[in-house]
TrEMBL record:
Species, as recorded: Companilactobacillus heilongjiangensis
Molecular-function GO term, any one: ATP hydrolysis activity
Domain ATPase AAA-type core: 49-344
Domain of life: Bacteria
Protein name in UniProt: Abortive phage resistance protein
SUPFAM superfamilies found in the cross-reference section: P-loop containing nucleoside triphosphate hydrolases
Amino acid sequence: MLIDFSMRNFKSFKQEISLSAEAGERLRKHQDTNTVLVNNKHILKNLLIFGPNGSGKSNLLDGLKCMQTMILSNPSKVTDLLPYNGFVLDSSSSDTSFNVIFSIGKDIYEYGFSYTSKEITSEKLSKVLKTRKRVYFKREQNNFESGDQSLIEIAKRTKRNSLVLYTAMQNNIKIPTEIFTWFSEDLVFVGDYRLNSTVSELMGLAKDESVKEQLLRFLHFADFNIIDLEVNEQPVMGNTLNYSAGSPMMNQLFAVHKVHNDKGDLIGRRRLSIDSESRGTQKILMIALSFINAEINGHGKTLLFDEFDDSLHLELSQAMVKIFNSKANQSQFILTTHELQLLDSDVRVDQIYLVEKDFKGESELTSIFDFKDTRNTTRSGISYMKRYVEGRFGATPIIDSDEMLDALTNNFKN
């Protein structure tokens, strides 16, 4: 699971920010349900990130996604440019930094790197012990330090725009391979439905009758009018079905609905591709399949959702947050959302983060736990949504509907 992610100088985030999933000190509320114990650390199963439109919520997850992409894909040539996307509303320029602390089984690691468009400027991998960190390797520009001689030789063969972690994984070095595998398999970004190899693999889960029954029961109790699910393998080319020979085969999911006549009599069934379903149906299926996939392939995965509540009604969003924080769930769900009423879900104060942008265009990340008057609050009935709207925590949009209307109609009046 993810314990902490920090970054600096990426998109709208100029200063270093930290998104921590480590439970707040001396906070015991919902500890047996909303947290999981990892190496004597209580790690939060669910983080909710709120903020107005344009505040930078998506940029926060984009940073972690960019880090994952750089780890999993190695530049083929030394002249290839890296995906540098630093803060642009400033005359100064500097490198971008990403850093994560995460657990793999019973071990906790810290890994991070800094880079410009042309090179990796620093890189460091450590194992986190009870009272200290054991540095596995450290790289600063052309200097490389490690107690492992084989890693020193590997570093010499690593291009300036490549990560030592990637080169070490290619050489089957144990710990770098474990780190690479965590980023590849346990850090999962769940997006909208678009048929690709990852989504095809998720859809294929429904071939299993027990999984299909799980999904149908879930959809029934979520009040979706779907009576059956079918999975067909079909040739796919690009984004359209193409039945030419040699096309790759992908799983296509179909939802079966009841068909009624004008009198309301049941006259048959109709099968619709998921492409034809509403965005809400697509999204809830992606969430459910991702949840089941984490169950099947081992708990402890970290799943991230941008604009989680988009196309979902409030009751369904609230129900999913409740599921994410249930005792049965042993994975981790991090989501951005506009739905302010989720602030009053049955979550802990350290699970709520706020993003806002200042007058210079810089995004800032804050935990509600950092506000002193929230840390020792134990009585129920306190509305964080009300306090947020009142501006007690900042991060509220400043909207003037009259002036907005005037701006839209001014030209017409003139």
